Amino acid sequence: MATTASTASRTPQLLTEELRAKTKGLHGKLDRLVQLGLFTVLDYRIYRQLLLGFYYVYKTFEEEYENHLKKVSQIHPWVLHAYAPELRRTEAFEADLAYFYGEDWKQNVSPSKSLQQYMEHIRDIGKHHPEKLVAFPATMYLGIFFGGQIVRSKIVKATSFFPSPPNKKLGGEHDGGIAIFTFREKAPPSSSSPSSLGNVTISSNNYNDNQKGKKKDPIKLRNELKTQLNSIPGLDDTSEKAIKERQAIVDEAREIFARNMDLITEVDGVSKVWTRWIIRFFLYLAIAVALYQFLTKESSFGNPLHL
């Protein structure tokens, strides 16, 4: 009886902490894969392919969220409280892709077959299992605030090793090439801006309107998002339905990490990086072993006790 009472009174784990704990291994693999792909080759042509792949992912889940927000009376309550429209990244991705590919980039690119399947997967859960959409801001936006800020810092500080496209400069007042990592105050509402939906306001669909706005503190935004996700009404409910739906969010977060790793490995050049890294690793290992054996042998011959 004491054990039962203790279990019943136990405070449920915060959603963000549970997701971090249960995706830790996948998260580490994804981080290493991104850093290996970017900072071993340091080639903007690989980086822009990664941008393009993730653009389709962010665009699809943001569209699904906003489709749900247009039906406030029918929306799953967790979805309503999980999305932060001011964090929307679709237009920032489009600005970065225009920087790296040129203004007509949309005419020259298309999602791969695996990306199309990923996009269909997102649309399917939006239609049939909307509670799983909670996993996307909890992984994709928090990912920008954590690992994404590290990537941004390395890109900006190492421009000589991470060459910009010809005649272009990373950063600057227009966030050239790094817009997805920069959050700015929104421009005043205009006639072309979407209106408020219930207690949620959809942000401007024109990234250029916000380029000169004051930069927001990413740490503050990150903490606000974590608080928002951890305070979703009913998330800590102990009913069978709530427990099942919460587990579905955890499972979807793991699915997101797995699909994101597949997205990265299919980028041209990343597999070559892996091959070169593995060859280099074993080459260094062989040299280290040979050097150790040589030094050990020399030390042995130099020892007066050696017979």
Automatic annotation (TrEMBL):
<dbReference type="InterPro" id="IPR016084">
    <property type="entry name" value="Haem_Oase-like_multi-hlx"/>
</dbReference>
<keyword id="KW-1133">Transmembrane helix</keyword>
<feature type="binding site" description="axial binding residue">
    <location>
        <position position="27"/>
    </location>
    <ligand>
        <name>heme b</name>
    </ligand>
</feature>
<keyword id="KW-0472">Membrane</keyword>
<keyword id="KW-0479">Metal-binding</keyword>
<dbReference type="InterPro" id="IPR016053">
    <property type="entry name" value="Haem_Oase-like"/>
</dbReference>
<feature type="binding site">
    <location>
        <position position="20"/>
    </location>
    <ligand>
        <name>heme b</name>
    </ligand>
</feature>
<dbReference type="Pfam" id="PF01126">
    <property type="entry name" value="Heme_oxygenase"/>
</dbReference>
<feature type="transmembrane region" description="Helical">
    <location>
        <begin position="277"/>
        <end position="295"/>
    </location>
</feature>
<keyword id="KW-0812">Transmembrane</keyword>
<keyword id="KW-0408">Iron</keyword>
<dbReference type="GO" id="GO:0004392">
    <property type="term" value="F:heme oxygenase (decyclizing) activity"/>
</dbReference>
<dbReference type="GO" id="GO:0046872">
    <property type="term" value="F:metal ion binding"/>
</dbReference>
<protein>
    <recommendedName>
        <fullName>Heme oxygenase-like protein</fullName>
    </recommendedName>
</protein>
<feature type="compositionally biased region" description="Polar residues">
    <location>
        <begin position="197"/>
        <end position="210"/>
    </location>
</feature>
<dbReference type="GO" id="GO:0006788">
    <property type="term" value="P:heme oxidation"/>
</dbReference>
<dbReference type="InterPro" id="IPR002051">
    <property type="entry name" value="Haem_Oase"/>
</dbReference>
<feature type="region of interest" description="Disordered">
    <location>
        <begin position="186"/>
        <end position="220"/>
    </location>
</feature>
<keyword id="KW-0349">Heme</keyword>
